[in-house]
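Sanity check. The docking grid for zinc ion depends on where the pocket ends up, so I'm generating a full predicted complex first rather than guessing from homology. Inputs follow.
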Amino acid sequence: MLDALKQAAIAEVDRLTPELVQISRFLHANPELAFEEHQAAELLTRTMASHGFSISRGVAGLATAFTASHGSGEGPTIAFLAEYDALPGIGHACGHNLIASGSVGAALALKSCLDQVPGRVLLVGCPAEERGGGKIPLVESGLFQGVDAAMLVHPGNRNETVKKALGMRDVEVEFFGKAAHAAAAPHLGINALDAVILAFNNINALRQQIRSDARIHGMITHGGKAPNIIPDYAAALFYVRALDMEYLEELYQRVLGCFEAAATATGTRHQVKRAGHDYRPHKINYAFARLFQQNLEALGISVDQGPEDAEMGSTDVGNVSQVVPTLQPTVTICGPKVSCHMSEFAVASGSPAGEHGMLLAARAMALTGLDLLRDRAALDRVRAEFAGGRRP
Ligand SMILES: [Zn+2]
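Predicted complex below; grid placement will be based on this.
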């Protein structure tokens, strides 16, 4: 199953193991928040440059985004995505240190094959996955034009090749009322906090009538200044999520209706604001997933695929998947009771099990990239599925 070139790619990951582990440990020990990943971007670009890659820093206007490229325009371009931001308070509880080092390993191993097969290897440094959707400006800048396939492996609690992700839109609502003494003259006031509470209640009622995979959830960001003043200003922030953008748009309109009804009922004026760009759902590519699975199995690892649409979150990888065939499998680094964004997951991300998973990810991604570079039929299947949206 593993021919000489594939064995050489694996041997390259073995050779690079001390360096990859060092990268992972450095990122783990120095967690940086979204858009502030300066040490990570510096380490990763320095590493790629030392291996002969051409570096562009600050791409798409993001200080901590970069690309590292090697090879010629002849043959396909395979991109590996590196994420490296951490979470507030709990460090690398999403394991992005492993994502970054795994993608570096895959890019370097695939680069070592480029004297045998034509193609280009790209490492895309993607800031701010946890907050702010750093990949969205990267997609909008056209960075993925000319890329044939993109991949990254996320650490998790099982080996899976296919996981859907929800589209997501944020919306902030502000209600403007009139302050008054809450005991002496409540009849002179207009209560903005009541409008927020009614907005929540309207959405709670709506929630029963929506598809089971959609989500609407929020928090109050301003609730008044003192109990003895009728709040003249109150605000809340909501996320609306759905598996497809059409349904997301429909739900969003209904949420706007919930806000409007709350304003009408309370006599407040209201205003709606959007903070970020839409996170798009992950466009799944089964042909791509199958290639990865075959390589994982050739490495002696079996896939334990759970439901594709259970326990879904949202990720800006979805935005990438809308413009280029994109794969984000997961590899196990911990037991089933631990999952990402738990402090136990941060421990796993810095453990030997985490590093083992990262090295496995680097090997399997390098082999999958090699398949796409030299097996035209395999790449055509991935492209055809992407173009037609049909599962092969
Ligand atoms: Zn996360």
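Relevant for the grid: The chain has a mean pLDDT of 96.
Also worth noting: The CA atoms of residues 5 and 116 lie 8 Å apart.
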